[in-house]
Fold this sequence. Notes:
Layout: E1 2-11, E2 14-24, E3 28-33, H1 40-47, E4 55-60, E5 63-64, H2 70-74, E6 77-80, H3 92-97, H4 112-124, H5 140-153, E7 158-162, H6 170-187, E8 190-194, H7 198-201, E9 207-212, E10 215-220, H8 221-232
Parallel strand pairs: 3-8, 3-9, 6-7, 7-8
Antiparallel strand pairs: 1-2, 1-4, 4-5, 9-10
Amino acid sequence: MIALDRLTLAYGNKVILNAADTTFGRGTLTALIGRNGAGKSTLLRALAAIDTPHSGAVVIDSHPLHSLTAEERARLIAFVSTQRVRIANLSCQDVVAIGRAPYTNWLGRMQEQDHEIVSSALEAVGMTDFALRSIDSLSDGECQRIMIARALAQQTPVILLDEPTAFLDIPTRFEICRLLADLAHSSGKTIIFSTHDIDAALPVCDNFAILDNATLALQSREQAAEKIKTLFSL
């Protein structure tokens, strides 16, 4: 579970989010939506403790994020950015293994349990057969699955993703959204992702967090349908 406690975000003199109180429950997939420039990426970065809020707090299981060390936060939140890892000759399993960094010893050496977790993460996203493939040889959709596997290997209760379906073709967008829903429901994780792909998100998301005019409204799929039509003029 992750909660906003009177969270206010600002960029310069512009208030992006004003005193929001919202709770995202366990085992749910939430799409964060809003017009361009509404502040979706800024909010995700605050939730991941990458950026510091203007006021208020982000709380995970009763722990304010600002009171935790970087290592402690890394065991609670995994963040998947819009950037893709495209390093030549770096295998997919090595990319996923980066997710074990908060747990390895001071030399960064993987133990047998870490290797098993990496294998399980690859299996969960359907990429076991790609383990030894170079990450720069994958399609955008395959690369995104590897980024999700890396987040799974981090074994956090919360996973945040910034536009995970960007640059993907239409069928792959639906596949990624379905994968995220399956992972949230089967593992009990809280998964939040920003998106403009309303058509792909609507069938599978439990909730929609609608960011508009510095306010955040968390609504069920059924509740959000009318607001989404208005927001995006559908």
